[in-house]
Write a structure and sequence with these properties.
single chain; about 170 residues; Rossmann fold; 2 domains; three-stranded antiparallel β-sheet; 6 helices; 7 strands; about 30% helix; elongated; binds zinc ion
Length: about 170
């Protein structure tokens, strides 16, 4: 496993249309910096992408009429797996450390000493996980060993996880 902060700040920056919440979460799973929220739609979304130098991912055909639209990928599918493949076809996505960012608020996660996680997770989870991470914004706890297993399975199915990243 890579050092969690070794490539912090690396990865791509996206601004994702509010109608693609699952896509936004999976891009965060893959370690990318994703702006996403109920307010990010239409011109507000475009302004965010432009201001923060993010690649715009949208399904909004109205936006395509704007001749000055910043760099973007128009997503055609309504299934998040197909959407991920569409993004991956446009820009390389995989190969980074998984679960570096909070899936809810996009902040980089921080290590938590194992003892401090003890009272915050079920005993079985504490007993079977060596590492715990927390979000400095919302305080959510993540335990990578368990979470990775599910994520890797999904990403391997999608062909987005190189073998070298699974060690
Ligand atoms: Zn959070």
């Amino acid at each position: 496993m890579r050092e969690p902060e070794a490539d912090a700040g690396d990865g791509r920056r996206f601004a994702v249309d509010r109608m693609m919440g699952r896509l936004a979460r999976w891009l965060r799973v893959l370690g990318h910096d994703v702006a996403y929220g109920p307010h990010l739609v239409g011109r507000t979304l475009v302004a965010c992408a432009r201001r923060e130098d993010r690649l715009l991912l949208t399904r909004d055909t109205h936006l395509l009429r704007d001749p000055h639209l910043p760099p973007h990928v128009f997503i055609t599918s309504d299934d998040f797996r197909a959407q991920l493949r569409e993004v991956a076809a446009a820009v390389p996505l995989g190969g980074r450390a998984l679960l570096r960012r909070c899936l809810e608020c996009n902040r980089l996660l921080e290590e938590v000493p194992r003892e401090r996680a003890r009272d915050r997770v079920p005993p079985f989870v504490w007993a079977t996980n060596e590492r715990f991470l927390t979000c400095p914004s919302c305080g959510r706890l993540y335990w990578p060993a368990t979470h990775y297993a599910h994520m890797r399975q999904e990403l391997t199915t999608l062909g987005l996880l190189p073998e070298s990243a699974t060690s």
